User: Fold this.
Amino acid sequence: MSVSIPQQARTAAPASRRHDVGFWLVAFSFLTAMAFSTVPTPLYAIYQQQDGFSTLTVTIVFGAYAVGVVTSLLLAGHVSDWLGRKRVLIAALAVLTVSALIFLIWHALPALLVARLLCGLGVGMVTATATAFLNELHTAGRPDSGQGRFELVSTAANIGGLGVGPLVSGYLAQFVAAPLRTPFAVFTVLLLLSIVAVSLSPETVQRPAERPRYHPQRVTADHGDRAGFVAAAAGAFLSFTIFGLATSLDPGFVAGTLHQPGRLLAGAVAFVVFGAAALAQSTTTSMPLGTRNALGLAGVAIGVIALVTGMEITSFAAFLIGSAVAGAGAGVLFKSAVGTVAAMAAPAVRGEALATLFFVSYVGLILPTLALGIASRFVDARTSMVWFGAVMLLLAAGAAVLARRVRTRSA
Assistant:
């Protein structure tokens, strides 16, 4: 006696498996893209030594990347909502591959500016698109599970990737020949593999019969819960300020003020920040949102105090501990922000909502770091870090007030 299985039941399981496999392929590509974006972090000291770059020059090169990210988020961060996740993500990875090739063959300052600008343009397309893609692949692959896997993997790929990049490039720069070429050769191959991985993943967006009229990204807090979005964006802004410091000026502080010039060590410091962020994210998944926010803000505040203290007393150990604690706090805040916005936004505008969140995040990456670089022209590194720490503590206090108001309103 045979049992007839409905066609819908026969096709649902393979479709779920395809989306589940696609989830991990996109996660790999997301991690690779974000890791590539921080590959230059431990190499800046080499550029400074060989070409005489000042701290301000390094900040300007970093600023070119951040400008590229913000521009991309404004112009293309939302188009995957109707153009398709795969198409936009493959295009973004192709742009990153071109950036890697420029780094590989041309080392003059104009080349660094162009390569970092292209890198920023690619990352701006990747962040919102890959995050929305992972959310939809997770839901289709495991429709009966919660958002825990999506939140953990998406933020680990994003933040963990930012930490893996400088660790890999720092190791290669320390122990392999051609330190300004080998890391980019390795990531060129990885980016090409990522393009293949995304091409094998199932699309999650049904393209409309008539393409919507193009418009730049709307920067708005109106994504289901205005106050909740503003509170999430404040946490993301603060988080990326910590991450911006780790990927731009920290290596120079470690090599100069703290007298630790090793290339691997420079990459390891950035890895500690992002590794602590990823670890904190993975261990706070079950915590209530209010508890996570409070823990994240406390971590950022305590870490910044320890980091500034390390600079003041020329203690690398205190600086490293402060970086780890601040990174852990930033990671928890950013994970909460992504989860909050992904959950509140309707599917049709999820890419747009996440693009707005990342736009605010990367403004946090640009402005404080650029201000710190400019300040280095007029005051010493220790003084500029004291002022930076004071601003960070004020920002943390403001974010805490916003989060408390949202919780009080929701109670």
